[in-house]
């Protein structure tokens, strides 16, 4: 993908947000199933959307906290492959967590737990900063430029496109 003067494409942005949100919840569900599968009798949306599930007072609560933070790490990788631009990582991460906040409010009311806010702000920071770091590393990779190799020998020393031929060791 070339970066420069790009037309503003709202459908692309909406598709990227939807894909990022779906991958986030899919990963969160899988990590919760791995960490909580043996601890609880039945998995439900309570562990994803209810602020009461995030608690530092029980082992189950710590498993939920770990799930949210591990999912933020995976989200940074999703930013690398879906968004591809370091300067957009904070925007897409914040959008994901704002949408999560809205869904949580609709599901269980305003999150009144201090732990919920700390974990979600930490997850936002972790996802945005690590995603930005990964995107910067990708953007700064050297672009391989193939050297010109002559096909035939011409008397002028110029190749078929008029450029000077270079020696390749």
TrEMBL record:
- Biological processes, Gene Ontology terms: Golgi to endosome transport; Golgi to plasma membrane protein transport; protein localization to Golgi apparatus
Q: Which domain of life is it from?
A: Eukaryota
Places the protein is found: Golgi apparatus membrane
Could you tell me the membrane topology recorded for this protein?
Multi-pass membrane protein
Alphabetically sorted, this entry's keywords are: Golgi apparatus, Membrane, Protein transport, Transmembrane, Transmembrane helix, Transport
Q: Which Pfam families match?
A: SYS1
Q: Where are the transmembrane segments?
A: 12-36, 65-83, 90-110, 116-136
Q: Name one GO cellular component term.
A: cytosol
InterPro entries attached to this UniProt entry? Integral_membrane_SYS1-rel (IPR019185)
The family this protein is said to belong to: Belongs to the SYS1 family.
What this protein is called in its record is: Protein SYS1 homolog
Q: What is the lineage of its organism?
A: Eukaryota, Viridiplantae, Streptophyta, Embryophyta, Tracheophyta
């Amino acid at each position: 993908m070339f970066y420069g003067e790009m037309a503003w494409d709202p459908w692309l942005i909406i598709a990227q947000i939807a894909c990022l949100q779906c991958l986030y919840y899919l990963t969160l569900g899988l990590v919760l199933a791995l960490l909580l599968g043996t601890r609880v009798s039945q998995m439900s949306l309570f562990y994803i959307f209810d602020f009461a599930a995030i608690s530092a007072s029980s082992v189950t609560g710590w498993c939920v906290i770990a799930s949210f933070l591990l999912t933020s790490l995976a989200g940074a990788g999703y930013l690398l492959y879906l968004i591809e631009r370091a300067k957009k990582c904070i925007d897409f991460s914040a959008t994901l967590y704002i949408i999560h906040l809205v869904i949580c409010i609709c599901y269980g009311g305003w999150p009144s737990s201090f732990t919920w806010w700390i974990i979600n702000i930490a997850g936002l920071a972790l996802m945005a900063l690590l995603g930005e770091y990964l995107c910067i590393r990708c953007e700064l990779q050297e672009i391989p430029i193939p050297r010109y190799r002559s096909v035939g020998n011409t008397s002028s020393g110029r190749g078929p496109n008029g450029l000077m031929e270079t020696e390749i060791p």
